[in-house]
Amino acid sequence: MKLPTVNFNIHRVYGGLSKLRWGDHSIWNKSHSPSAERCLHVSSKDYGGTIWEPDRRGGSEFHREDPNPMSNKEHLKRGAKMLIPETKKMITELKDYFSQDPPKCWYPQDGVVDKYFEFGSPESVDNWVTTCDSDWDQGYSTANVTISPSGTGIFSGNISTRIPKTGQVHIAGYANLRFVPPHRSFYRESTYMFAAYTHLALRIRGDGRTYMVNLHPHTMFDLNFMDLHSYVLHTRGGPYWQETLIPFSKFFIHHKGRMHDQQYPIELQEVRNFSITLMDQNEGPFSLEIDYVGCIKDENHNEEFAYEQYYVGRWMASN
């Protein structure tokens, strides 16, 4: 008696909660019909593979086919064209490294905001990406980012908590604004060094909603791909700007929205990216105007971490 195929898929649900879902029967070979012989699914690839597979999407089944797939020959041509400009970029990086000119993040001035994420020109919109639940067919919210006449960025859209009738999502309604992470030469990952700062500084003009400010850590293992260090951002409605300072010691860590039992501070010497999320479960339009997001140093701030750090034994389950 042959065992039926079980395809375990971790489906990402809004709010960070994940569940184990029974998937369709997997076929080992594309040429096999659904009634053909089945085997135990150990890989998402039809041709086999290993049990461990890195997944930046965290198990999401959403997949968008490439409308213009390239052949191996085209990939080689494209790589050859990139070789010269990427090599020049690496030479520039080496010159900057040996120029003995320390970056501003090493020795920041006390009380001075160093801007890292901001808008300005209309082309600066390309440095930001908006996502919402409708992008993954998991809701009906909308989001976009535009430039105001004064050169500030406006993150706006509409939040809808209506749930698609697919049976896969139990809660919906979120929008996210994320900065496009920079890359070094040959598309190597680059990180921000915020270790010398104490606060995250934002100059915003909101609509009275409560947003979430996220710092993306630099991770090396797929187990931590969905880790985020976050803190709430309360905005005031009205025409006035607000300058908000959030201590880095206040950021808490969670994985897909689930709080970690064992909290620990973010490694500020390797911050990968920055994003803002709205998921307050209130339907209707939203608008958040952003002038800049930066960092500031306060010599009077000595707090290392704001939350209790519990020790969890090795024999106890923790997340």
Automatic annotation (TrEMBL):
One of its GO terms (molecular function) is unfolded protein binding. InterPro entries: Galactose-bd-like_sf, NADH-UbQ_OxRdtase-assoc_prot30, NDUFAF1. One of its GO terms (cellular component) is mitochondrion. Keywords: Chaperone, Mitochondrion. Residues 53-73 are annotated as: Disordered. Transmembrane segments: none annotated. The keyword Chaperone applies. It comes from the Eukaryota. Residues 53-67 have a biased composition (Basic and acidic residues). Pfam families: CIA30. It is found in: Mitochondrion. Residues 117-290 form the NADH:ubiquinone oxidoreductase intermediate-associated protein domain. GO terms for biological process: mitochondrial electron transport, NADH to ubiquinone; mitochondrial respiratory chain complex I assembly. Belongs to the CIA30 family. This is Complex I intermediate-associated protein 30, mitochondrial. It comes from Thrips palmi. The gene is LOC117650906.
